[in-house]
Description:
Number of helices: 2
Helix content: over 70%
Structural class: mainly alpha
Strand content: under 5%
Largest sheet: none
Order of helices and strands: HH
Shape: elongated
Amino acid sequence: MRVLAYIAAFGLVIFVGFHLITDGYPSFLRQTHSQLAAQILTLGTLMLTCAATFWAVRRLP
């Protein structure tokens, strides 16, 4: 059961990463007017998503 949860979490991270790159980065770029800030925000958001997702999977019984 835990293996399926890890597979789903990995798929979720890829899905969120795709949407961050296609939708999030341009939005961050419009708001900050800085490529570096937009890249940092995009990577930071993706790292937070990865950490939260895999932390939640680890908490499964």
